[in-house]
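Record format v2
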Amino acid sequence: MIHKFSQGNVNIVLDVNSGAVHVVDQLVYDVLDYYPDHTKEIVVDFLKDKYNGNSILEAIDEIDNLKKNNLLYTEENYMKHAAFKNKKTIVKALCLHIAHDCNIRCKYCFASQGDFKGDRSLMTAKVGKKAIDFLINNSENRKNLEVDFFGGEPLMNFQVIKEIVEYGRSIEKKYDKNIRFTITTNGVLLNDDIMDYINQHMYNVVLSIDGRKETNDTMRYTIHGDGTYDIILPKLKKMAERRNHENYYVRGTFTRFNLDFAEDVLHLADLGFKHISVEPVVAAAENDYAIQEEDLSKIFQQYEYLAEACIKREKAGSGFNFFHFMIDLDQGPCVVKRLLGCGAGAEYLAITPEGDLYPCHQFVGNDDFNLGNVLEDNLDTSIYNSFANAHVYNKEACNQCWAKFYCSGGCHANAYNFNKDILIPYSVGCEMEKKRIECALTIKARLMEEEER
Amino acid sequence: MKHIKTLTGANLPKSAVKGGCGECQTSCQSACKTSCTVANQQCENK
């Protein structure tokens, strides 16, 4: 299987199963519409009005050369590969819902403004320590473990965060583990002491802001209804600076209200942030802010515009990382990881303040997906196994898709929320992801061309 | 080659031979909380 596309005056051909990426001229791009499905003679006949016959045969020779070297139209056999066939799913990451409470109100919040449709509650140190025990006991021989402090707003329960981190640090060496703590915060409660603590103990920090003031304040406001932009911006900038602009992301959400979201990304870059992620809201179609299928053409145009801006800024020495355009063509994740996807419900679980286990933060509150409780140290293996087996090869739509090794089957929660089946991906999300991959490949190709000049 | 420039070679088959150690960071721990994306992660077992 191959995928070919043109963007920004570059023709790109992706060999899906090998991961090889080629930049081709217009002649090869056109020949690939007919070859190898048709014979050389027929291809020459099809294209003789546009190209010289010898040039067409020359292009076909180059295509044949790539095929011979397993760089084009390669066969797929990963399902039979030992690394995939013998894979063993082990819990290695937790999303700790340290607070089912929040100090701001976001219109699009999947957590129902922080309480996850239940009573507002904070995790106790007892539950947090049990969660660490659960992770260590269920991670077998994995060394690298991850624990994300999430909410609601986790800093509303800062003392318990410190106790959990201290507990994790006190036992990780004994079990030959390396626990990486991370935190996702809206930034309202950040002060110098908390920043120092986070910079000392948190491997990564996600800081929530949606972009321009009017964008952010339309969706993110205090309990009194005031926008949060002016409150959080100085704190987020200080936080990024104190981390030497490493290991953090400012993370925004775009909605139907700001389909010109590229301007929000560039605004964040202009503010000096170097690591930026702005993503489409996931919401049921009846919400006025939800992305609709008819919005896709505008969104695609914005991604292309943003890709051009990324290229321009990179060349000018003022580049930034846009999370969804990051793609490592030489040392990305292995093919096994790409097939298994994000790991939600299998290697990654969410834990509520009461200790209940769910496949991920997006499933919290849905009793059909309650996997057990860390206080009782039990795990529903039937739900667990259904997620462990929700890989690319078990998703019919993904199996035929050129993007499968890049998107890894998409988000289980989105699939369930839109299709009531974790094996049927959310199609609007698929289209956006495919566009982002094309943009990422275009950026790579264009910058490579610039380097060679 | 005159008409084709290869940007990157066949990296997936190679990664299947060495891959699957499971030590890499889960995608939710990096930046995203809604569009969990794997391809922009890094292998930690180079």
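Chain A has a mean pLDDT of 91.
Residues 2-76 of chain A form one domain.
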